[in-house]
Amino acid sequence: MRAIAPQPLLDLANVSKMFGGVSALSDVSIRIPEGRIVGVIGPNGAGKTTLFNVVTGAFRASSGAVTFADEPITHWPSYRIARAGIARTFQNIRLFASMTVFEHLLVAQPHQGAGIRRFLPARRADPEAWRRAEEALAFFGLAAYRDRIAASLPYGIQRKVEMARALTARPRLLLLDEPVAGMNHDEAAELRTLLRQLQDRGLTILSIEHDMAFVMTLCEMLYVLDFGVLIAEGSPAEIRSNPVVIDAYLGSEA
Ligand SMILES: Nc1ncnc2c1ncn2[C@@H]1O[C@H](COP(=O)(O)OP(=O)(O)OP(=O)(O)O)[C@@H](O)[C@H]1O
Ligand SMILES: [Mg+2]
Question: What is the domain partition of the chain in residue ranges?
Answer without folding.
Answer: 95-170
